[in-house]
């Protein structure tokens, strides 16, 4: 009887949270917009990035929802964005090196989150800050000829703020059901695994987030936990607390023209996250078909045991392990020490 009552409470809270999130998201995404967070495009062999937005772009931060969004009213309350006089310098963020064969070593791109949130140039650092097999580093993949850095303007939820409002609600299947009430048409895959006496779940999403003139296309990666042996009829997990956050890097790719060419849209920098997200303005040819979207992600886990547990969950859900990672081969992953890199398209 106690378990039934507990489930009833969780369900009731979840339904309320879905309604609150639905209303907040609808208000945010349907607000009039004139400017958005910007990034700069980068051509291979060219050290200079091409500016992707005009000068005097303004930005607004909607604190209650924790979402970076555009606003026409920003010009009345905030100073105009001023272009940097010189090319921005990528801050070094040292990480523990992974021992690999020398011929495989490659610089890991480490970008300060301020560079992403201000829309400054995306490019690898000039000095090494760690090493990985070449096919597991976004920088290495780029040097091998793969386009893996996003170049479009985008919006995202600021999950790097420990006080992010959404972190208070956890996640369960009711939220996915409720998403359709606010014109979300998104697919998802869940990778549950156990580690160090806890149950973890990494859930990924991609698809159409609101359609029509204000439509956005994008994806998400969420990290959730709950006590070992938890029972929940709706699969409820808690959002990972700060001490459980993991270093992640995520790029959304889109075959917008339907010709099989998946081009990078946006990149969330490699840093501590519990819920990296990113969305560009646009519409899928068929909003109920997210196959034209791929999510490329690298996650650095606490240790090799945790990485192995997640990799096994990927395999259980239908991903294929590969010895050499290729981001053009869908639904595959590679594990190396504490790192796992994967590309998602079809697995549900």
What's a concise summary of this model?
This protein is an alpha+beta fold and 348 residues long.
H/I helix tally: 6
Multimeric state of these chains?
A: single chain
Structural class of the secondary elements?
alpha+beta
Number of domains: 1
| Estimated share of beta-strand residues | 25-35%
Describe the fold and architecture.
This protein has 348 residues and is α+β, with helices and mostly antiparallel strands. The protein has one domain (1-348). It is 18% helix and 26% strand. It has helices spanning 2-29, 74-77, 113-117, 138-143, 173-179, 304-317, and strands at 60-62, 67-69, 156-157, 184-195, 198-209, 216-227, 238-239, 246-254, 263-273, 277-281, 293-300, 320-321, 332-336, 339-344. The strands form three sheets. Strands 9-8-11-14-13-12 form a six-stranded mixed β-sheet, with helices on one face. Strands 4, 5, 6, 7 and 10 form a five-stranded antiparallel β-sheet that branches. Strands 1-2-3 form a three-stranded antiparallel β-sheet, with no helix packed on it. Helix 1 (2-29) runs parallel beside helix 5 (173-179). The longest helix has 28 residues, at 2-29. It is globular, with a radius of gyration of 20 Å. The two termini are 34 Å apart. Mean pLDDT is 73; it is low at 1-129.
């Amino acid at each position: 009887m106690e378990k039934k009552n507990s489930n009833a409470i969780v369900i009731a809270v979840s339904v309320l949270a879905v309604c609150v999130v639905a209303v907040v998201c609808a208000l945010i995404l349907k607000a009039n917009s004139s400017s958005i967070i910007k990034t700069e495009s980068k051509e291979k062999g060219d050290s200079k990035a091409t500016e992707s937005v005009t000068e005097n772009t303004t930005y607004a931060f909607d604190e209650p929802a924790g979402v970076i969004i555009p606003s026409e009213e920003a010009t009345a309350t905030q100073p105009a964005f001023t272009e940097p006089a010189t090319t921005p310098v990528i801050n070094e963020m040292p990480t523990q090196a992974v021992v690999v064969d020398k011929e495989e070593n490659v610089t890991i791109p480490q970008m300060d989150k301020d560079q992403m949130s201000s829309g400054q140039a995306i490019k690898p650092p000039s000095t090494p800050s760690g090493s990985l097999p070449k096919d597991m580093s976004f920088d290495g993949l780029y040097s091998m000829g793969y386009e893996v850095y996003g170049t479009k303007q985008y919006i995202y939820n600021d999950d790097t703020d420990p006080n992010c409002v959404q972190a208070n609600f956890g996640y369960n299947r009711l939220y996915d059901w409720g998403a359709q009430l606010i014109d979300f048409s998104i697919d998802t895959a869940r990778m549950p695994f156990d580690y160090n006496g806890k149950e973890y779940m990494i859930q990924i999403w991609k698809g159409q987030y609101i359609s029509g003139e204000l439509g956005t296309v994008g994806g998400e990666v969420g990290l959730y936990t709950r006590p070992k042996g938890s029972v929940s009829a709706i699969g409820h997990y808690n959002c990972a607390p700060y001490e459980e956050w993991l270093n992640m890097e995520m790029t959304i790719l889109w075959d917008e023209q339907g010709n099989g060419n998946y081009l990078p849209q946006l990149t969330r920098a490699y840093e501590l996250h519990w819920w990296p997200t990113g969305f560009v303005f646009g519409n899928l040819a068929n909003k109920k078909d997210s196959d034209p979207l791929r999510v490329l992600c690298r996650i650095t886990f606490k240790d090799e045991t945790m990485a192995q547990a997640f990799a096994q969950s990927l395999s259980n859900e239908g991903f294929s392990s590969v010895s050499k990672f290729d981001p053009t081969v869908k639904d595959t992953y590679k594990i190396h020490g504490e790192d796992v890199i994967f590309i998602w398209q079809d697995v549900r």
